[in-house]
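Page 37, continued from 36.
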């Protein structure tokens, strides 16, 4: 059973005002770390290269239920699997950026509704979306620090 609640439009605006609703930026951080892992793995497996075989994809997807290379690497990161070649700080950054991406995407959908001229009353959202908005507002400083990684690159 789905649970719904009415959202205060001011809270949606607040998340935007603080610059927290940036799913593209969170995805950029996440994808760069995934690419770094793939690069390190490619270097590691280069000596095992067999023409015509995608050994990097085979490595990550062999014992994984995912069909997508990025999802397989994310799955390993969430488990803090030691087979990843990126540093542990990057693993944590990868997980955090993925969480932030998912939450910011949900809140962006709310923001799109909030900006619509057709929506004049309250906005009703599901429990996950409400929690996503709460998360972004509660951890503003952490989200800003996460976004600062884009400037460092």
């Amino acid at each position: 059973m789905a649970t719904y609640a009415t959202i205060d439009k001011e809270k949606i605006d607040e998340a935007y005002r603080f610059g927290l609703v940036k799913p593209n930026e969170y995805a950029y951080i996440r994808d760069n770390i995934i690419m770094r892992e793939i690069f390190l793995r490619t270097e590691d497996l280069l000596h095992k290269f067999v023409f015509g075989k995608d050994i990097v994809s085979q490595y990550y997807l062999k014992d994984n239920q995912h069909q997508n290379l990025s999802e397989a690497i994310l799955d390993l990161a969430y488990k803090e699997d030691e087979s990843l070649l990126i540093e542990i700080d990057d693993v944590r950054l990868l997980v955090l950026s993925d969480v932030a991406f998912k939450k910011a995407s949900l809140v962006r959908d709310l923001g799109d509704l909030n900006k619509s001229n057709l929506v004049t009353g309250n906005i009703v959202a599901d429990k996950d979306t409400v929690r996503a908005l709460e998360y972004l507002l509660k951890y503003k400083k952490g989200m800003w620090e996460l976004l600062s990684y884009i400037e460092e690159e």
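The beta strands are 4-7, 123-126. Flag for discussion at group meeting. The first helix runs from residue 9 to 17.
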